[in-house]
């Protein structure tokens, strides 16, 4: 695939993925409550989910999303329910009286499941790859090597965006040392997570 096409794809993806949405809101919420290291499984799941959507588009399998619409709808609402449950958990999370310990993160598999649910159930991401991508790239002429190049470009762009957001949230988290600050962080994170669930559910 020529460099021009990859740059166009990277630019479009940067604009689409860089704008705050359900995925970014969920990512920031998890960093605030668990720290940047704890969200690595979440980030990996987000990138895997986007690679799945990209592969569906590149290999002409978009019809699967239409044929098995019910399956994707179930995934979407399961993701919404899980995000809502996480929001409730964050809202009621206890804080340490001494202010030395920040809220703990979920287990890695839970973080991965959350990231995958957010990405696969996010209509914004689905529409980019299944509807917008074909207008940017001639998918009919993408070879296996081209798919690898697109996937690598996608990962690089998403890493730059998502890690940037995670680092910013992590810096904010350093100031959360008092019980009141931690309680505010929990409530803000819960609100962000609930907002992500609402955004996915409303589309």
TrEMBL record:
<dbReference type="GO" id="GO:0005886">
    <property type="term" value="C:plasma membrane"/>
</dbReference>
<keyword id="KW-0472">Membrane</keyword>
<dbReference type="Pfam" id="PF01810">
    <property type="entry name" value="LysE"/>
</dbReference>
<keyword id="KW-1133">Transmembrane helix</keyword>
<feature type="transmembrane region" description="Helical">
    <location>
        <begin position="70"/>
        <end position="88"/>
    </location>
</feature>
<feature type="transmembrane region" description="Helical">
    <location>
        <begin position="144"/>
        <end position="168"/>
    </location>
</feature>
<protein>
    <submittedName>
        <fullName>Lysine transporter LysE</fullName>
    </submittedName>
</protein>
<keyword id="KW-0812">Transmembrane</keyword>
<dbReference type="GO" id="GO:0015171">
    <property type="term" value="F:amino acid transmembrane transporter activity"/>
</dbReference>
<feature type="transmembrane region" description="Helical">
    <location>
        <begin position="108"/>
        <end position="132"/>
    </location>
</feature>
<feature type="transmembrane region" description="Helical">
    <location>
        <begin position="41"/>
        <end position="63"/>
    </location>
</feature>
<keyword id="KW-1003">Cell membrane</keyword>
<dbReference type="InterPro" id="IPR001123">
    <property type="entry name" value="LeuE-type"/>
</dbReference>
């Amino acid at each position: 695939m020529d460099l021009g096409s990859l740059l166009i794809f990277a630019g479009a993806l940067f604009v689409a993925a860089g704008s705050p949405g359900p995925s970014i809101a969920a990512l920031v919420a998890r960093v605030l409550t668990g720290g940047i290291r704890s969200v690595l499984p979440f980030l990996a799941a987000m990138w895997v989910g986007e690679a799945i959507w990209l592969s569906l588009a590149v290999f002409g399998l978009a019809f699967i999303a239409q044929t098995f619409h019910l399956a994707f709808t179930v995934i979407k609402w399961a993701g919404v329910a899980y995000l809502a449950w996480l929001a409730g958990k964050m809202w009621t999370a206890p804080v340490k009286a001494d202010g030395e310990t920040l809220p703990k993160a979920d287990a890695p598999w839970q973080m991965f499941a959350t990231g995958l649910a957010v990405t696969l159930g996010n209509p914004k991401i689905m529409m980019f790859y299944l509807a917008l991508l074909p207008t940017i790239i001639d998918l009919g002429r993408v070879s296996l090597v081209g798919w690898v190049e697109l996937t690598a470009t996608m990962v690089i762009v998403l890493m730059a965006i998502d890690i940037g957001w995670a680092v910013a949230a992590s810096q904010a988290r350093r100031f959360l040392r008092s019980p009141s600050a931690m309680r505010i962080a929990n409530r803000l994170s819960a609100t962000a997570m609930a907002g992500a669930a609402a955004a996915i559910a409303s589309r």
